[in-house]
Amino acid sequence: MMQNIGLDKFNSLFSLVTYFKDDETCKEFLIKQRWSDGDVICPYCGKHHCKRRSDGRFRCSQCLRNFSVLVGTIFENTKISLVKWFIAMYHISSHKKGISSHQLARDLSITQKSAWYILHKVRTLFGQESTTELTDNVECDEAYIGGQEKYKHASKKTKGTQGRSLKTKTPVFGMAERKGKVVAKKTSNNKGRTLCSLINQFVKAGSRIFTDEYIGYNTLVKSEYTHSVVNHGAKQFVDGDAHTNTIEGFWSQLKRSIFGIYHFVSAKYLQRYVDEAVFRYNTCKLDESDRFKKMFLKSIGIVRYDDVKNVA
Question: Which of 276, 248, 269 shows the shortest CA–CA distance to 143?
Answer without folding.
Answer: 248
